């Protein structure tokens, strides 16, 4: 059934935009939505008026403010095809999509090489020792200046970063990235029959916008830290004659652009995971509220849960691996940067950057490494709550008074047997484990402060 026709049934009235039958599959419905001028006008007052607005209006707002800019970013970084019209046969559009993706991978590779040439480490900036003035060999001078390990500081992190991107491209292209639009549509349709659906709509829209805004701020702040480190450092590129000022300036600009591109790629992929985890959390919460507030057929509700389990499996087994690869790199940057700031390093600490920008850099890596775990823990918590809903439904005499007892018992047994959780690195992520980790980090910070490692030097 078409979304507009569904909204008519859910909202109890006509919805502007027509009621044509859709011939597309459910996974492609979000990409084929059409809206009238009246719905677009309603978008302007969606978050400002408490009046009754349709599900179509809310989806229009999400598409305009959240989904459309985000899908454009996916196209821009090569995760989705630039030309989507011709995907069935080999054509010029398909050839262009492959060429564009290959160019993106080559551009990422150029950034990795430039970081090595400039001895630029993402965990601490430009790390140089004083040059050996007794030698006139450029390679020998560079080896004395750059004290970073080629394997552990450049090669392995960059290879992992590239693997995460290539894997994400494979997942996004194989699913055509219809998962997020169809999931967003499913969530808003599921809450349309709840008593407080409009409050939930506004809250969910606001949450999704916050995720997109925070992701953009992280990219901007990361770019600011890179530019500040570059402005405060005397940069020398390996194999480049430092007397060629124009060439050095051009390579510096290219280094900044490539680094920004690296951050944008992983921020968008992690954002996709967080958005889908948030939508799944809301979806399961709405299914729980729907069962509590309304009498339902057990088989119908169980089908909804099974659909949720399929979406959860896609999150755990398709989206999570790429996020895990990026998180592995980000955690290594955060921990290495913290130990370097505390002067716990095998080599002498000599930094041309101020301590403030280094703390900001480490904080950014810690934040982007922690966010997926927080979202996974929230999703797992809702999954654990749903296991006990059978007992809650069995003890509610008014909502389900007309439902036979054996059907309520079937819901109780079904919910008790559910084993659902969000996983990262193949491990279920729960709030209690996350809380223990945060507490442990707090204790470590207190101990380091008492041992005078956190004193300004």
From TrEMBL:
Signal peptide: none annotated. The keyword Transmembrane applies. The chain crosses the membrane at residues 95-114, 210-231, 243-261, 319-342, 354-374, 433-454. Keywords: Membrane, Transmembrane, Transmembrane helix. Residues 11-20 have a biased composition (Gly residues). The keyword Transmembrane applies. Residues 1-27 are annotated as: Disordered. This is Uncharacterized protein LOC108557720.
